[in-house]
Amino acid sequence: MSALQQHPALPSLGSVYRTRAGVEVKEFFRQRESVVFTVFFPVVLLLGLGAVLDYDIGYGVTFPQYFMAGVVTAGVVGSSLQNMAIHIAGERSDGTLKGLAGTPMPPSAYFVGKIVQVLAVTVVTVGVLLAVGVLVYGIDLPSGTQWLTFTWVVLLGAAACTLVGIAVSSLARSGRSASAMITPLALMLEFISGVFIQFSQVPTWLQTVASLFPVKWMAQGLRSVFLPAELAAEEPAGTWELGRVALVLGLWCVLGLVLCVRTFRWVDRADR
């Protein structure tokens, strides 16, 4: 018997990546609680706050139109930062990560699968939000080159928040405590970043704190595609600062990657 017959060829790295990505996406959408919280919670926010706070902000802009940038930001944060941190902490706690670490699967396949899952969930969440915004509130969607800005802001924001979520997952002592720790943290960042209210109404010192994190910059970048140019004057710098938005989100991608490499664990602290 030849060596080839004794040892069948291992699947290619691309095949392993595709398989792992398929597993991650299917597992997520089979968990009803995760789907409801991640995909439909931002929709509930849009419907609820849009109905209660349906007033004119200025320049003919209603609150639902202004809030669209914020609720899309919340959807991206939920699909990436919260989703990653909570689910990875749970998989570490229940032994899934330890089991995967003991298989021939390259570790990179696990992270590729998570990234594909985030992209899939983000696309679904943002698509549902845009559809509801247009059908219920008549939201004006981006046009022309605004779609390009919308795309890169969402992708860079999702990438930064995904990497931060992976890093933050190591802070949770167990899967049970992850949600209680991560959800308030994400909500706090969203509140001070002008996701739920006009950013100009956030106290100046909190605006400064928010500017240290990617959520504020993602929301600001998205406001530039949903709001008229006149409202840029309401921003702290009096402009949308899209160059700085790209720079800060890019820096957070680099910082998040460094934090992931330095902090990621395959087992709980108690199992070490």
TrEMBL record:
<protein>
    <recommendedName>
        <fullName>Transport permease protein</fullName>
    </recommendedName>
</protein>
<dbReference type="GO" id="GO:0140359">
    <property type="term" value="F:ABC-type transporter activity"/>
</dbReference>
<feature type="transmembrane region" description="Helical">
    <location>
        <begin position="149"/>
        <end position="168"/>
    </location>
</feature>
<dbReference type="Pfam" id="PF01061">
    <property type="entry name" value="ABC2_membrane"/>
</dbReference>
<dbReference type="InterPro" id="IPR013525">
    <property type="entry name" value="ABC2_TM"/>
</dbReference>
<dbReference type="GO" id="GO:0043190">
    <property type="term" value="C:ATP-binding cassette (ABC) transporter complex"/>
</dbReference>
<keyword id="KW-0472">Membrane</keyword>
<keyword id="KW-1003">Cell membrane</keyword>
<dbReference type="InterPro" id="IPR051784">
    <property type="entry name" value="Nod_factor_ABC_transporter"/>
</dbReference>
<keyword id="KW-0812">Transmembrane</keyword>
<feature type="transmembrane region" description="Helical">
    <location>
        <begin position="35"/>
        <end position="53"/>
    </location>
</feature>
<feature type="transmembrane region" description="Helical">
    <location>
        <begin position="180"/>
        <end position="199"/>
    </location>
</feature>
<feature type="transmembrane region" description="Helical">
    <location>
        <begin position="65"/>
        <end position="90"/>
    </location>
</feature>
<feature type="domain" description="ABC transmembrane type-2">
    <location>
        <begin position="33"/>
        <end position="267"/>
    </location>
</feature>
<comment type="similarity">
    <text>Belongs to the ABC-2 integral membrane protein family.</text>
</comment>
<dbReference type="InterPro" id="IPR000412">
    <property type="entry name" value="ABC_2_transport"/>
</dbReference>
<feature type="transmembrane region" description="Helical">
    <location>
        <begin position="245"/>
        <end position="264"/>
    </location>
</feature>
<keyword id="KW-1133">Transmembrane helix</keyword>
<dbReference type="GO" id="GO:0046677">
    <property type="term" value="P:response to antibiotic"/>
</dbReference>
<dbReference type="InterPro" id="IPR047817">
    <property type="entry name" value="ABC2_TM_bact-type"/>
</dbReference>
<keyword id="KW-0046">Antibiotic resistance</keyword>
<feature type="transmembrane region" description="Helical">
    <location>
        <begin position="111"/>
        <end position="137"/>
    </location>
</feature>
<keyword id="KW-0813">Transport</keyword>
